[in-house]
């Protein structure tokens, strides 16, 4: 067990031999966010769109009396917008003291994954994706991309730098 | 930093502020003993505390100042010099305090200069004025603290008048008082540290009041002082009369004069605590609103009564908490009398400061923000506004100028007026400066009203002060003032009568946390507009009393015989389907920001609601349109529209560049009213010529002697560059002497001067051009102000000046009225081509970028032809056409591309995109010809648009 705690554990504090991830999907791709970062999982009831806002921001919503900025994961990743209605799910995250809701297609179960199945980010990935992820877990039937929640929510600075 | 020191800093800071104010009052009213004793008491307190805390430098300064003030109490004449000196000492004390606050250590240094001077002055009096035995050491040459302190006793001795309580009395009273500290501090033997006042020699002729004081002091000492003394004892185990000191500090308050110091019981509460309380109350208000909303839907429940009660209590609580944050505006004014006093002597002016409404209360958050702007404005009034006594005499005014500061509540806001009876704004100078700084062309600025001109003083770096004085004129300030005030949702306004004075009116909200807002609908969403900004609501409908009209595509509303610019909310917000209100129906929210009135056209209006302003997410804070967001009673999040942000779009120029106003199209709908501003000039003969003013960069009158001839072509050095001159008519020769009138056109780096005989006028008129054939120098002719006028084709002259501005040709007449979208990133070309295209019979819509153009198109405008520049920054013309072709609706719209150069690759690309034709940028005839070839069949089903 202990030999498995190599530099991966060092790189990401709090990552023990096994880590727990909240899984989610966007455009048929499975992602995982470290459970310690997830504050809430909720259904997006009503969104107030913000005219002239950056594209990643789909609107503002009221989560138990708190105004939460809703950020669409698809847009952050440059994926096409989902079509059609249906319930939107969002994951509540805290970033620099502010509340965000990461809008995704669906939220799945919580997985406990061992370090053995984890791989570094493949080098040939689209740079945008590469920046937003911490690595990949090989699951039985699919791959789970470990999202870097802070990087996902840091789009603002990127946009300005560009 | 230990608590004791921190408390000392806070208290001393407050005391010093009071002393500042009081001293100035005292100077004017030297016989007012109450003021004097108040000052004396405060300074003494400061001195005492410093000594106690072991801050020798502060102590000796305070001591020296106190000594001099002691003289005043002796009936010594209060001179300006003396007061200035004391004020200077106070400043030094403040500096030291600031340093102390930063480092928690008293900075090293000597204050020999001030102390020496103070001492000299104190002793001087003695020599000159007092018949009493002059104190031997008074003229002590050594300015070190020690001798001076030794001097104190005799002064104090002498000073004590009947009815007055001297320091020594107090001290003694306290020593005798059974303080709670008695147990651990031995009653002070004459202190070993010389820095304290009450030394051994106590032969003071103490008068009667001592016992009373004693009694009071006793009471005090038992209650208030207790805690302090303990703390201090820990902090400083120095065997000094610290109990006495601490007590003494309180005693004067108890026993001293009872004028300005209010006796209301107060406690110090940490600001954070209040802030937190405020947040909680805000949440409570929100929850209550939600409950009310629920109750509204469930008619029959038993919640009604308790809910009503809750509602009341919440309202009261909210009010109460707000009150804790309220401070009289006077606290922000405290420094002003001092400022004015210093300025008067610095500038040699006589200025009186009148303050009214100092007890008007407002939120401390707001207060903090306006403190500095206010001070700056007062300085400004004193420096720029008020004239010197001599000037005032000449102008028939009294020598003493008055600056009036007035604050009062008005609705949910506070109005602060700063007025002076000085010379007023020099509009001429501002105009000139505005032109110099390139804030507008001479003609534009000439046309502006005084109100508009006055606004220029809020431009960054704008100062017309002839000389930069130490006081102002550094070119920083008024813009910062304005920004600060607008930051908190306030407005500044200027009114000025030349020769009579200037009044600044600042309007600021009482609080920033909870505001009343009007909930409106735009598109399919609701927004909140702060009620403060709303003047009235007008319902507009086509065919009704109030209806939207358009000038050059910009909507306006006639309201009580005034034209109100209208900003459609949907458009400002860039909402999809902004066209939905193209019918111009809905409500106009009439708003005012500063002097600028405008209307925001919204689709619907709901109700007014008290909203709790929540800050925008950091990722959205850059959007100027919104000042925050809130959660309404029904739980929905709505954005709060910032009227200041909207107002900025009302001003021309910015509107077009930033928000795509004119570009978004409605331009086409009412040509018949469309007016154009024309510059009318004369050149070659008596006939009048005109050019759209929007094309003109500026008008110049140059000395013909400065014209240089290079290779037979006239050039002039203009703004550090050589600018070619072209005669407007071949028949006129450019003058060799005298002055030559020029109309300057420029586009980016290139500029040219059109030499004309005379500039006649600038007029606004409906431009109905009749084309003339075969004259490339003219677009056509039109009747301007009842006179036939030739409209000059600037495109003709440009190639004459610069080879790379290619030559144009004569236009051909087009017979149908079709709509055309012109896309070009250069405003100059847009402006230049627009009249040409209009003359060719098109309704022209313009866009400065691909994005804007797509916006115009998506607004479902009827566009028959698109003319687009290919070379544009960002998404270029090809990308634009690609995007156009992607839309089924626009699949076959004819497109003409403008380009400076064409290669095979570009042609191939153009062919694939079905671009009908490539035309060189200046080839007017080519463009007109290409347009002429577009089949007119296309426009048939758009016929009703005409």
TrEMBL record, chain A:
Record GO biological process = chemotaxis; signal transduction
Q: Which gene encodes it?
A: cheW
Stretches assigned to the CheW-like domain: 18-158
InterPro entries (alphabetical)? CheW, CheW-like_dom_sf, CheW-lke_dom
| Signal peptide extent | none
SMART domains the record matches: CheW
SUPFAM superfamilies, per database record: CheW-like (SSF50341)
Source organism of the structure: Salinarimonas ramus
Q: Give the protein's recorded name.
A: Chemotaxis protein CheW
Coiled coil location: none
Choose one Gene Ontology CC annotation of this protein and give it: cytosol
């Amino acid at each position: 067990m202990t030999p498995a705690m190599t530099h991966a554990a060092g790189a990401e504090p709090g990552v023990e031999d096994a880590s727990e991830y909240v899984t989610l999907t966007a455009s048929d791709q499975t992602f995982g966010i470290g459970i310690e970062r997830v504050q809430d999982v909720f259904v997006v009831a009503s969104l107030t769109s913000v005219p002239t806002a950056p594209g990643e921001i789909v609107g503002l919503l009221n989560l138990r009396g708190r105004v939460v900025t809703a950020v669409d994961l698809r847009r952050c990743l440059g994926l096409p917008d989902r079509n059609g209605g249906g319930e939107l799910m969002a994951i509540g995250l805290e970033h620099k003291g502010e509340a965000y809701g990461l809008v995704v297609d669906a939220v799945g179960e919580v997985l406990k994954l061992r370090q053995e199945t984890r791989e570094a980010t493949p080098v040939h990935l689209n740079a945008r994706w590469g920046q937003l992820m911490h690595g990949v877990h090989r699951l039985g039937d699919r791959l789970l991309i470990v999202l870097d929640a802070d990087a996902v929510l840091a789009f603002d600075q990127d946009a300005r730098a560009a | 930093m230990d608590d004791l020191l921190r408390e000392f800093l806070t208290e001393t800071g407050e005391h010093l502020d009071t002393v500042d104010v009081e001293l100035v009052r005292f100077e004017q009213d030297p016989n007012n003993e109450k003021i004097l004793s108040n000052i004396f008491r405060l300074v003494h307190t400061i001195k005492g505390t410093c000594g106690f805390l072991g801050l020798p430098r502060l102590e000796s300064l305070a001591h020296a100042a106190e000594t001099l003030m002691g003289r005043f109490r002796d009936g010594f004449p209060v001179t300006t010099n003396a007061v200035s000196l004391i004020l200077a000492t106070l400043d030094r004390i403040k500096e030291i305090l600031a340093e102390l606050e930063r480092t928690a250590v008293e900075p090293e240094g000597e204050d020999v200069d001030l102390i020496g001077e103070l001492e000299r002055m104190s002793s001087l009096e003695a020599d000159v004025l007092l018949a009493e035995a002059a104190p031997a050491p008074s003229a002590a040459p050594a300015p070190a603290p020690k001798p001076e302190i030794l001097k104190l006793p005799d002064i104090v001795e002498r000073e004590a008048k009947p009815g007055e309580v001297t320091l020594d009395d107090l001290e003694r009273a306290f020593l005798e008082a059974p303080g709670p500290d008695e147990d651990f501090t031995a009653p002070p033997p004459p202190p070993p540290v010389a820095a304290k006042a009450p030394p051994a020699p106590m032969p003071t002729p103490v008068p009667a009041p001592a016992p009373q004081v004693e009694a009071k002091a006793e009471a005090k000492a038992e209650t208030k002082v207790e805690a302090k003394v303990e703390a201090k004892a820990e902090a400083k185990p120095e065997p000094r009369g610290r109990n006495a000191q601490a007590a003494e500090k309180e005693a004067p308050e108890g026993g001293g004069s009872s004028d300005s110091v209010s006796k209301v019981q107060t406690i110090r509460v940490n600001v954070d605590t209040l802030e937190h309380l405020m947040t909680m109350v805000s949440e409570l208000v929100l929850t209550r609103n939600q409950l009310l909303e629920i109750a509204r839907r469930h008619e029959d429940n038993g919640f009604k009564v308790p809910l009503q009660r809750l509602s009341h209590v919440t309202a009261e609580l909210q009010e109460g908490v707000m009150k804790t944050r309220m401070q009289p505006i006077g606290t922000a004014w405290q420094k002003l009398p001092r400022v004015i006093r210093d300025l008067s002597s610095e500038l040699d002016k006589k200025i009186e400061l009148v303050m009214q409404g100092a007890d008007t209360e407002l939120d401390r958050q707001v207060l903090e923000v306006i403190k500095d702007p206010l001070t700056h404005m007062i300085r400004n009034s004193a420096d720029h506004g008020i004239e010197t006594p001599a000037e005032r005499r000449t102008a028939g005014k009294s020598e003493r100028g008055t600056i009036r500061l007035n604050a009062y509540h008005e609705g949910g806001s506070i109005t602060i007026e700063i007025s002076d009876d000085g010379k007023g704004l020099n509009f001429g100078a501002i105009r000139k400066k505005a032109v110099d700084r390139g804030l507008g062309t001479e003609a534009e600025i000439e046309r502006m009203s005084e109100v508009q001109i006055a606004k220029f003083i809020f431009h960054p770096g704008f100062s017309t002060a002839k000389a930069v004085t130490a006081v102002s004129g550094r070119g920083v300030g008024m813009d910062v003032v304005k920004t600060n005030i607008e930051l908190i949702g306030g407005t500044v306004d200027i009114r000025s009568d030349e020769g009579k004075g200037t009044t600044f009116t600042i309007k600021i909200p009482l609080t920033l946390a909870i505001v009343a807002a009007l909930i409106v609908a735009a598109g399919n969403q609701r927004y909140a507009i702060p009620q403060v900004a709303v003047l009235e609501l007008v319902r507009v409908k086509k065919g009704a009393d109030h209806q939207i009209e358009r000038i050059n595509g910009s909507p306006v509303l006639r309201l009580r015989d005034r034209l109100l610019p209208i900003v459609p909310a949907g458009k400002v917000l860039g909402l999809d389907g902004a066209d939905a209100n193209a019918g111009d129906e809905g409500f106009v929210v009439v708003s005012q920001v500063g002097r600028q009135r405008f209307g925001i056209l919204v689709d619907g209006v709901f109700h007014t609601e008290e909203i709790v302003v929540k800050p925008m997410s950091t990722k959205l804070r850059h959007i100027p349109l919104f000042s925050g967001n809130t959660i309404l009673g029904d739980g929905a999040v709505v954005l709060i529209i910032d009227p200041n942000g909207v107002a900025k779009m009302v001003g021309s120029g910015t509107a077009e560049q930033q928000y795509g106003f004119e570009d978004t199209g409605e331009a086409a709908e009412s040509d018949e009213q469309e007016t154009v501003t024309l510059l009318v000039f004369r050149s070659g003969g008596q006939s009048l010529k005109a050019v759209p003013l929007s094309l003109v960069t500026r008008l110049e009158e140059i000395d013909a002697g400065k014209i240089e001839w290079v290779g037979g072509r006239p050039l002039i050095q203009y703004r550090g560059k050589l600018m070619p001159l072209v005669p407007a008519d071949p028949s006129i020769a450019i003058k060799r002497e005298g002055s030559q009138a020029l109309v300057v056109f420029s586009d980016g780096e290139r500029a040219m001067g059109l030499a004309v005989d005379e500039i006649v006028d600038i007029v606004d008129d409906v431009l109905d051009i009749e084309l003339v054939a075969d004259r490339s120098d003219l677009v056509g002719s039109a009747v301007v102000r009842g006179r036939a006028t030739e409209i000059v084709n600037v495109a003709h002259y440009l190639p004459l000046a610069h080879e790379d501005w290619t030559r144009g040709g004569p236009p051909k007449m087009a017979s149908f009225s079709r709509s055309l979208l012109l896309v070009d990133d250069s405003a100059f070309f847009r402006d230049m081509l627009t009249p040409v295209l209009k003359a060719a019979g098109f309704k022209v819509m313009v866009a400065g970028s691909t994005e804007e153009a797509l916006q115009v198109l998506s607004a479902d405008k009827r566009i028959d032809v698109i003319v687009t520049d290919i070379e544009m920054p960002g998404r270029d013309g090809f990308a634009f056409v690609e995007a156009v072709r992607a839309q089924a609706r626009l699949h076959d719209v004819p497109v003409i591309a403008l380009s400076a150069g064409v290669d095979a690759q570009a042609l191939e690309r153009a062919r694939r995109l079905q671009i009908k034709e490539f035309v060189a940028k200046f080839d007017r005839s080519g463009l007109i010809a290409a347009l002429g070839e577009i089949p007119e069949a296309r426009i048939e089903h758009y016929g009703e648009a005409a």
